[in-house]
Design a protein that fits this description.
This protein has about 550 residues and is α/β, with parallel strands linked by helices. The protein is built from 13 helices and 18 strands.
């Protein structure tokens, strides 16, 4: 009933001509580990059940040439700052559970820009941008309200901070992650309205993250319906990051022989997110004036990872093509298309009728959202460091308007390791893409030069083309990255490598999980790792103090709950 009410409201309200407001409300929905081929609006043949998101996408602008970073923290940091990860320190790894590091505080985050523009701001869901001090947490970085988890993965019911295998595919309510990883702290935090600190919320235990996020969003919108300020609501869902589990209700939607056991769980997990978004949309559309003045953006944070043979249906040479990201090659953690090109859309009654229900092939990147949304809000980015993102709004609302983006840096990981895997450097210019197996940056990891683009050792058993040196693809003709054009277009390759070097030269030292964490000049290089032990009852809270720190002791007094 709730779903049909939302779809009916969407159909009727979409017929009302609406003028663009100076300060629209903004709803940003971020899925976790969702592949290019895992939404109904991207592929109707897989039997996926995502009617709410499909309805929003099909009446908005679907983005088919849209990129993010290959792993979690890098994408989230690029989104929040509008800057490439090489400028932030997130180009090599996610931010680990116990590492005293966060995205630098001199970076201005999107919600801070929107607060400056008069917005009420709230975030419910996954953070993963640093939390070793309170000053790095959401409530101190631009959000008026916060609820959710700080780390990269957790149990969706017990909120244990760990990335273990789920104990049950359809109701993992006793998940404690025994004997698989040492991190078992409780990771669900909540601020009150108007508070500047988020505290552990034990009442969330045994309630799924999707339900908690949906409840908080609905309650926020109910309060905003009586307010006089525009709002920014950020919903970074846990779905569909591992551990893979859902409820019998959603897994049962795929209870037929056409789906494998793994697909039943993954697809149910996706359907659960769709239903949570449906509840949010029901509340939003119940106040037509509020919905009519709202811009909704949907994105994944990276391509899907491998999830088992009965889900991946992997084929091809190393790396291959998995069903989750098809037709693209590769997966999460890699800068092949499958790791970085993801589903996305923009939906709003503010869109002109001429672009509603269209598909855009324009080139967009996650860094583009900050200047675009701040521009819509009538704000400025004067206090931000130099942006890599572009304001793409005009290219979304005018079918003949090209994207201002003509190139896109996939990544440059200058260290021999890290979760951002090989190939470690890549750049797209127009339709051409260059990949380098490994790449040095002057001044980082002992390197004296930026470049060259080093080949893959033949013994790695990887695509043999990378053993020859840099590879070049034309993505317009070859989106699956099968044909290396490096020897056919040497001048194109030369220009692209020169541009890659220019961008790489702007890199900062990447953060790592062990001291000194970000090179010898990092201010907290001697700070301790998280001191807490394991245990479901122990909150994984910030451990370094903001007050009482000194140059000699930048962590301040170490504390634990």
């Amino acid at each position: 009933m709730a779903l049909s009410l939302f779809l009916s409201a969407l159909l009727l309200i979409g017929l009302v001509p609406v003028a663009r407001s100076f300060k629209p409300n903004i709803l940003f929905i971020l899925a976790d580990d969702l592949g290019y081929n895992e939404m109904g609006f991207m592929n109707t043949s897989r039997g996926l059940h995502t009617p709410v998101l499909d309805g929003l996408a099909s009446s908005g602008v679907i983005l088919k040439n849209y990129y993010v970073q290959p792993i979690c923290s890098p994408t989230r940091s690029a989104f929040m700052t509008g800057r490439y990860t090489v400028r932030l320190g997130t180009q090599s790894n996610v931010i680990y559970w116990n590492t005293p590091w966060g995205v630098p505080l001199n970076e201005t985050f999107l919600p801070q820009n929107l607060q400056d523009a008069g917005y009420a701001t709230a975030m419910f869901g996954k953070w993963h941008l640093g939390m070793f001090k309170q000053s790095y947490t959401p409530i101190r970085r631009g959000f008026d309200e916060h609820m959710g988890y700080y780390q990269g993965c957790e149990s969706k019911y017990t909120h244990v901070a760990a990335c273990c295998t789920a104990g049950s595919p359809d109701h993992d309510n006793e998940y404690v992650c025994h004997d698989q990883m040492q991190y078992e702290g409780y990771d669900w935090f909540k601020s009150g309205v108007g508070q500047n600190t988020s505290l552990p919320d034990p009442t969330a235990n045994q309630t799924s993250s999707a339900e908690l996020i949906g409840d908080a969003a609905v309650e926020f919108l109910q309060r905003q319906s009586n307010g006089d300020r525009p709002w920014f609501l950020y919903l970074p869902f846990q779905n569909i990051h591992g551990p893979y589990t859902t409820t019998p209700e959603y897994r049962g939607l795929f209870n037929s022989s056409e789906f494998s056991e793994g697909e039943k769980t993954i697809f149910g997990y996706i359907a659960e997110m769709d239903a949570a978004v449906g509840r949010v949309m029901n509340q939003l559309t119940s106040v037509p004036d509020m919905y009519q003045n709202t811009v909704i953006v949907f994105s994944s944070d990276n391509g899907a990872p491998n999830a088992g043979p009965d889900v991946d249906h992997d084929h091809g040479k190393n790396p291959g093509w998995i069903a989750r990201n098809y037709p693209f090659r590769g997966h999460k953690g890699l800068i092949w298309e499958g790791g970085t090109r993801v589903p996305g859309f923009v939906h709003s009654p503010l869109l002109p009728v001429s672009v509603k229900g269209t598909v855009s092939q324009e080139l967009y990147h996650v860094t583009d959202w900050l200047p675009t949304l701040v521009g819509l809000a009538g704000g400025t980015t004067h206090r931000n460091l130099a942006l890599d993102g572009h304001d793409i709004w005009n290219s979304l609302i005018e079918r003949e308007q090209r994207s201002p983006r003509t190139e896109m840096l996939y990544n440059v990981n200058p260290i021999d390791g890290g979760q951002a895997g090989t190939p470690r450097a890549g750049l797209r210019v127009g339709d051409y893409k260059v990949l380098c197996w490994s790449y040095t940056v002057a001044g980082i990891a002992g390197a004296n030069t930026t470049g060259p683009c080093s080949p893959c050792p033949a013994a790695k058993g990887y695509d043999p083309e990378l053993a020859k040196g840099p590879v070049l693809y034309n993505l317009a003709d070859d989106p699956g990255e099968t044909t290396n054009l490096a020897t056919r277009h040497p001048e194109v390759l030369k220009r692209m490598l020169a541009r890659l070097a220019e961008l790489a030269d702007g890199s900062v030292e990447p953060q790592q999980w062990v001291p000194p964490y970000q090179g010898e000049s990092y201010y907290c290089k001697d700070c301790p790792l998280h001191p807490n032990g394991t245990g479901v009852g122990e909150p994984w809270s910030p451990w370094c103090a903001d007050n009482g720190e000194s140059r000699e002791n930048p962590c301040g007094p170490v504390w634990s709950d």
